[in-house]
Amino acid sequence: MKNLVVDILRNNERFEIVTHEGPDEDAVGSSRALAFGLLSMGKKVKIVYPTPIPDSLLFTSAPKNQKDVKPQISLLLDVSDMNMLGGFHPRGEIVIVDHHKTDITAGMTCWIDPGKSSASEMVYDLLRALEIEITQAMASNLYLGIFGDTGGFIHVNTTPRVFRIAYELTRGGADPNLIAYRVRRSKSLTYYHLLSMVMDRMMINDGVYASYISLAELKRIKARPDDASGIVEEMASLAGAELVIFLKELNPDTVHCSMRSKTGQSALRTARAFGGGGHERAAGITLKGRASEKIEDVIEEGLKWVNKG
Ligand code: AMP
Ligand code: MN
Ligand code: MN
Is 148 exposed, middle or buried (0-12, 13-18, 19+ CB in 10 A)? Predict the structure, then answer.
């Protein structure tokens, strides 16, 4: 299906690139790299982020935001569920390029490959297929996305191919030290305050480790939602934690739940039980209600799946 997407990119002129709300390194990196690529072909491109990019990701080169382009094509990148668009309605014909296991694509034009580490790896393939010269700006954004989704080259999606592409991107001007430091060494003190609250109230049941942060607590220490990103990864670093569950209230009746499993598929299985999704070992759910109430339900479901492969 890659070839079909390549033809669509070649044969249309006006594009809207849409990624998921709460854009992460892969969402930002893949969107910007593809936008740079299409602009270099003389196309018109606008990137839509349903919610703003966190300040920590503003450092890589951004293509000039073009005026309204009346898109022929809305290319969805790193999106595995229409609920992740934060209510945005794509305006052109939808084409999906993603690396998540997903079933949203019935009847839609798509290239879905869960064997790929990231949407950024797939955009690299698209740029190569289009014979676009990969500039430093493209290389840096693609490296950012691959670094983000492989957890800094530690997750199971860190394949030999990922290292080969990272090698090419580094040769093309991506700066691994700069990118790693910007992503990893840019935490606020507020983040560590949040982390200590989350660790203090950890609930441990067998291998299931769960915690949460409420909106009132976020407000009390003047934290922004971005300040909590990365906490679930710290929980997953605990010895003995097979499945970690972290709930963060987004507004008075909406909670985002992040899960990570160390070996089996319990993160994805638990997420699916609540209508969420993601990868086998990194999954998420959007829930209606309060974190302190919902956490019990998620733990109960998680216990069913942990240690079951
Ligand atoms: P997060 O814990 O938010 O970093 O999410 C981990 C993974 O779960 C993401 O890469 C997405 O694939 C997926 N995911 C997160 N939130 C949702 C959601 N509300 N619905 C479906 N999948 C999600
Ligand atoms: Mn993402
Ligand atoms: Mn991704």
Answer: buried
Say if CB 194 and CB 247 are below 8 A apart. Answer: no
* Mutation choice for ligand 1 from 24, 212, 286, CB with most ligand atoms inside 8 A: 286
The residue with tokens 């109230």 is 201
As to burial, measured by CB atoms within 10 angstroms (0-12 exposed, 13-18 middle, 19+ buried), residue 304 is exposed
Number of domains, the chain: 2
| Ligand 1 pocket test target in 79, 102, 258 with most atoms within 8 Å of CB | 258
What is residue 309's predicted lDDT score, i.e. its pLDDT? 62
Q: Same domain for 55 and 71? A: yes
Separation of alpha carbons 204 and 216, rounded Å: 24
> Ligand 1 pocket, 228 CB below 6 A?
no
Q: pLDDT per residue over 193-249, tens digit each?
A: 999 999 999 999 999 999 999 999 999 999 986 788 899 999 999 999 999 999 999
Cα of 23 from ligand 2 centre, angstroms:
6
Q: pTM (2 decimals)? A: 0.90
Whether 257 lines ligand 1, by a CB cut-off of 6 Å, is: no
Q: In CATH, what number is assigned to the domain containing residue 253?
A: 3.10.310.30
> Is there an atom of ligand 1 within 6 Å of 119 CB?
no
